[in-house]
Amino acid sequence: MKGLEMSTLNMVIVNAQIHTLNKQDSTFEAVGIRGNKITILGSNHEVKGFTDDKTRVIDAKGRVVLPGFIDAHTHFAHMGVREGYLDLSDTTSKREALAKIRKFALSKGAGEWVIGSGWDESHWTDSNEYMNRDDLDAVAPNNPVLLRRVDGHLSSVNTQALEILNLPTGTIGYEEVDGKATGILKEDAVEQAAKILEPSINEFASGITPATEIAYRLGVTSIQDAQVDGRMLKAYRALNDSGQLNIRANLMITTDYLDELVTLGLGTGFGDDWLQLGPLKVFSDGSIGAGTAALTAPYLDNSEELGLLMWDKEELEEIVLKAHENDIQLAIHAIGDRAIDLVLDCFEKANSRQKKDLRHRIEHGELLSGEQIARMREMKIIASMQPNFVGQWGLVDGMYDHRLGRERTMLMNPFASVVRSGVPLVFGSDCMPFNPLYGIHWAVNAPYPLQRISPEQALKAYTIGGAYASFEEDKKGTLEVGKLADLVMLDGDPFNEPTVIKDMSVEMTIFDGKIVY
User: Fold this and answer.
1) How far apart are CA 151 and CA 429, in angstroms?
2) Distance between CA atoms of 508 and 493, rounded to whole angstroms?
3) Model confidence over 229-257: pLDDT tens digits?
4) pLDDT per residue as tens digits for the range 470-509
5) How far is residue 74's CA from residue 9's CA, in Å, rounded to a whole number?
6) pTM above 0.90?
7) Which domains occur in the chain, in start order?
C-alpha cells in the first residue's frame, strides 16, 4: 500500500487494473482520492479501510484505469471554434465534398462566409487534386469560401474570397498560374488569410467549453495548444480568471510574441496548475500533404519540389538564441529531413553558447533519421510526434507512399528508434483526429518495424511524456500518491488486446478529483 497521512476519502475505485505508468508501471487493485489528489494506492481491502458512508465507491469491474491523457500537440481553441464550421473530414470523394459545400452555402445568406476544414484529398476515391477557385465558384457563386485542409497548411478559396482577402502577389504560398490566382493558398498565405478571419476573444472562449466536453469523452485531461496568439491567450485567461477553464492548458505562444515575452520577463512555466505559458512555437517548414515539408530529396509525385523552409539559417538561429538565452522553451515544427537538420543546427549553436536543459522540442519529426535522433539524444531534445498520422497517411498505398515512395515511408515516424535511443517521446494528436486511443493504436500496430512500440510505451508517451514536456512530471502523468487526480477508465484492455485499441472507448474520466464523464 502506498498512501499519504490518511483521513476519509472522497472517492475510491476498486476492483480495477490500475496501471500507474510510472517507471515500473506498478499496478494496483484500488485507488483513493481526497480532494483533487491521489491519496492511496493498494488492494481493495487497504483502500476501503479509509472510506465511510459519504465516500463514493466506484466498482471498475476489472477495467483498466490509467492517468488522464495529455495531448501534447493540439489546436484546442481552434477545435472549439470549428464546431460551427463545415466539417469535411469524413468526405470520401471530391464530388461529395463539393456537394456538401453547395448545401452549406445554400444555408447561408448571399455574401456570408462559408468556412470549413478537415478535407483530405488523399482519402478521396475520385481525385487526388486540391479544390481550386473554379471548383468552389461553381458550387458557391454567391458566397466567399475558405476551406482549410486537414493539416492546416493549405486552404482552398473561391474568387469572392480572393477579392476580400486581397493578399499581395508574391506572398509565400499564394499560388498563381499564368498570372491568375488558382485559389490554392499555402503556408504564409494561409496564415495571412486566417488572421483576417480570426475569431474574436469571445468566440475563442465560447469554443473552449465544447472542446473541453469532447476532451472528457476521449479521456483527455491536459492539453498543449500548439499555436496561441494574443486573442487565444486572452480567451484562456478570461476563462481561468472566472473559474470556467475546466482543462489543464499549456499554451505554445507564436513567434510574433517573442520580443514581448522577453521584455516582460515571462518564461516557460509561468502560470498555475490550470493555465501556463508553454514553449515558443516556431515553424521551420510545412507539411507533406501540402507539398511544403522541406526535404533533402524531391517529392515522388513532383520531381522538382523540395518543399519550403520558412526561415533562412541566420533568421532561425536568431530566434532560437533569443529564446534559449531568456529561458524560453522552443517547440519547432519540423517535418522534412532538411528542416530537421536546420533546426538541430540551430539548437547546437544555442547549446554551444549556453548549456541549459530547457527541454526544447521538435514537433512532428515525421522524417527523422537515425543520425538526427542521435543528435537529439545528445542535446536532450524531445520528440513530439503524432502517431495518428500513421493511420491517416502511413498505411500501404497511403499519402506517404504516393508523395514520398515506399522506401521513405517505411522509415517515417520511427517511434521505436526514438524510444530505443532514449530520446523523450511525447504524443499529441494535432486534432487529426483528436482521439488518443486512435493514435496509441497506430503506434502499437504500425505497419513497419521502426514505428512499432509496446502499449506501455505508447501510453506513457500520451501521459507522463506530455507531463515531462511541460515540466510537470512531479504533478501529473502517472498515478502516484500526491499527484493530481486526473484518471481515465477504459472499456477495453490495451495491454492484452493491443490489436483493437482504436475500437476501445473511454468509460469514465475523472478530472481534478471529480467525475466529468
Assistant:
1) 11
2) 14
3) 999 999 999 999 999 999 999 999 999 99
4) 999 999 999 999 999 999 999 999 999 999 999 999 999 9
5) 34
6) yes
7) 1-62+475-517 (2.30.40.10), 83-196 (3.10.310.70), 201-474 (3.20.20.140)
